[in-house]
């Protein structure tokens, strides 16, 4: 959750960090991307650890509880967002969209 706070803080166009660091929003963008990728990786690792623990305890059925299922859907959404932010994929999509 602390990483999400950092992620939102860096995503703000008028972030308080810009005047403090003397950098513009565009220069702080790589920090936002790094925090975002870190958030995605840690959420995937979290899912792997929990699914492994549940599998060893023969309690994989716990995944179908409402809160756990919602977390799985949110994690999948995070991975999809991460895939769509890959640089070469975005450039390729924008080139195709501009040709139409």
What descriptive keywords fit this protein?
single chain, mainly alpha, 100 residues
How many helices? The count is 5
Total number of domains: 1
3D shape: elongated
**Biggest beta-sheet profile:** none
Which segments are poorly predicted (pLDDT under 50) over 5 or more consecutive residues? none
Tell me roughly what share of residues is in helical segments. Answer: over 70%
- Any idea what the radius of gyration is? 18 Å
Structural class: mainly alpha
How much strand content do the residues show?
Answer: under 5%
Roughly how many Å apart are the termini? 41 Å
Mean pLDDT: 79
Strands, total number: 0
Q: What is the element string, with H for helices and E for strands?
A: HHHHH
Explain what this protein looks like in three dimensions.
The protein has helices at 2-11, 17-21, 25-56, 66-84, 87-99. With 100 residues, the chain is an all-alpha fold. It has one domain. Helix 1 packs antiparallel against helix 3 (25-56) and helix 3 packs across helix 4 (66-84). The radius of gyration is 18 Å and the shape is elongated. The mean pLDDT is 79.
What's the gist of this structure?
The chain is built from five helices and no strands. The mean pLDDT is 79.
How are the secondary structure elements laid out?
Blueprint: H1 2-11, H2 17-21, H3 25-56, H4 66-84, H5 87-99
Helix pairs in contact: 1-3, 3-4
């Amino acid at each position: 959750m602390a990483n999400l706070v950092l992620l939102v803080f860096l995503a703000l166009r008028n972030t308080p960090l810009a005047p403090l660091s003397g950098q513009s929003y565009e220069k702080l963008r790589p920090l936002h991307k790094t925090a975002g990728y870190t958030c995605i990786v840690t959420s995937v690792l979290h899912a792997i650890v929990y699914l492994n623990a549940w599998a060893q305890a023969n309690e994989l059925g716990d995944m179908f509880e409402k809160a756990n299922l919602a977390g799985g859907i949110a994690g999948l959404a995070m991975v999809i967002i991460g895939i769509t932010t890959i640089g070469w994929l975005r450039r390729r999509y924008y080139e195709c969209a501009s040709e139409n």
